[in-house]
Amino acid sequence: MKKTILLVSANRHHIPYPVYPIGVSYLRGYLESNLAGFHVEVFDCNLHTNEELAQVLQQLDPAYVGVSLRNIDGANSLDRSSFIGSYRDIVSCIRTNSTATVFIGGAGFSIYPQALIDALKPDYGIIGEGEESLCELVRALEQGQDPSRIEGVACYVDGTFRCNPHTKYLKSLDVKFEHNLIDFYWQSSGMLNIQTKRGCPYSCIYCSYPLIDGRKVRTLDTDLIVDNIKRVKAEKGVDYLFFTDSVFNIYNSYNIELAEKIIKSGLKIRWGAYFSPSNLSDEMLALFRASGLTHIEFGTESFSDSQLVNYGKHFTFREVLEASELCLKHNVYYAHFLILGGYGETQQTLKETIENSKRIRYSVFFPYMGMRVYPGTKLQAIAIEKGLISSNDDLLAPTYYLEDGFEVEEVKRMALETGKAWVFPDDPQSDMMDVLRYKRNKKGLLWEYLRRP
Q1: What is the pLDDT of residues 274-325, one digit of tens each?
Q2: Phi/psi at 128 (5° precision)
Q3: Is residue 174 part of a domain?
Q4: Contact at 8 Å (CB) between 70 and 101?
Q5: Number of structural domains the chain divides into
Q6: Strands 101-105 and 64-68: what pairing?
């Protein structure tokens, strides 16, 4: 009789929309293909209560339970709510209703492995790319072997915390979209997620992506990606995908191959992704558009050149403007995500950003106030040096770097006077998005309905 592994997606954050738990779908696909003698089930906390989790645990009696933590908080300085209490309740529910060995992993865990093991007290944690690590961990435990040296495993050994880095990575992953979840996310989010690559080579001072996936960029099998898209479209009618790569337009020879295969397959889909304003040519964008690209979310952060340098960005405002015009040329919707009041921001750089926003046509601007401070980033070192945080602060509580003299309401006033589409984190326009999704059945990101000339 097969043993059961239950994978729990603990995320309940719905802003700006619920996000399909792609991480546990990749895990399920890998475990089912590589771990004999086990049956894998998925439980999504976005759809179910802890009481329902308790019932599932009692019915399945799993040998192992993996809990995936996507976010630690909303990364929004205007709402500093933490999700740790909710995660603690989920783990407590598992412990109360099961004798299973408990693992935790996911993007959120990978940033704070020791702090979260201390807070949630699982048996083991897994940082970064979890598929192979989890497989090896289960095998070791089944065979009575010591798993503490497996790559990616985090745990205490004789009272000392141990966290093993990754040295090898996967290049081929088959995603198993959960049929019982697709309908919910297709209706409430208007899209599904999929990855084409993992890792980020850039050095933005605040960013946690290199901590989560590493700096080494690994591209995934393009044929499998196309097959996965074909399958979910044929079976569920899903025709909008968001590629969740930290930055899509790196390794562009690979991106060209993927786009060409999507076109050759005859798939009629629409897709969006996170892009950098640099490394984007006219010919490339034309190809992406032909393959179905409709939405770009630029991680721009500032429209001031000196502030871009402060943030560790590798492009200039001129490139931002050129990329924006390219999008207009090829009929691709685009939005710019910004960080106002972060490290090095002055009244002058802020005014530059506000003034330069007037030069960007038919876009939407999503500004965040200040920078979330994550462990292991350059921003953490800066904040320690300035005496804003202590060196032993685990940063699990929402902690932000905001330059002195930064007045949120004044910034809002300046931005809105431009006549452009500025959407602040506390903006109520999400109500309009809900109408478009639920009542008019619109799919995709939908912020294009907010843009202005």
Answers
A1: 999 999 999 999 999 999 999 999 999 999 999 999 999 999 999 999 999 9
A2: 60, -145
A3: no
A4: no
A5: 2
A6: parallel
Domain membership of residue 235 as a residue range: 191-450
Confidence of residue 261 (pLDDT cuts 50, 70, 90): very high
How far does CA 316 lie from the centroid of its chain? 25
pLDDT tens-digit series, residues 185-226: 999 999 999 999 999 999 999 999 988 888 889 999 999 999
Phi and psi at residue 102, to the nearest 5° = -110, 130
Co-location of 245 and 324 in the same domain: yes
- Residue 186 within any structural domain of the chain: no
Considering the domain architecture, whether residues 221 and 361 belong to the same structural domain is answered as: yes
Kindly state whether residues 233 and 147 are assigned to the same domain.
no
Asked if residue 301 belongs to a domain, the reply is yes
d(CA 151, CA 126): 9
User: Do 182 and 240 form a contact (C-beta atoms < 8 A)?
Assistant: no
Q: How far is CA 235 from CA 20, 226, 238, 280, in A?
A: 17, 14, 8, 34
Asked if 127 and 198 sit in the same domain, the reply is: no
- Buried-state track 215-240, b at ≥16 Cβ within 10 A, e below 16: eebbbbbbeebbebbeebbeeeebbb
In terms of Cβ atoms closer than 10 Å to its own Cβ (0-12, 13-18, 19+), residue 65 is buried
Q: Establish if 335 belongs to a structural domain.
A: yes
User: Residue 141's domain is classified under what CATH number?
Assistant: 3.40.50.2300
Tokens for 93?
């529910």
CATH number of the domain within which 195 lies: 3.20.20.70
Pairing of strands 38-44, 3-9: parallel
Which DSSP string corresponds to 350-375?
Answer: HHHHHHHHTTS-SBEEEEEESEE--T
pLDDT score recorded for residue 200: 93
Reading the block at residue 157, the tokens are: 């050994």
Omega of the bond leading into 16 within 30 degrees of 0 (cis): yes
Report the half-sphere exposure of 294 (CA within 13 A, side-chain side). 16
Domain closes at, from 163, 183, 213: 163
Q: What is the 3-state secondary structure (H, E, C) of 190-218?
A: CCEEECCEECCCCCCCCCCHHHHHCCCCE
Residues belonging to the chain:
453
Pairing status of strand 197-198 against strand 192-194: unpaired
CA distance 276 to 218: 18
Q: pTM of the entire structure?
A: 0.95
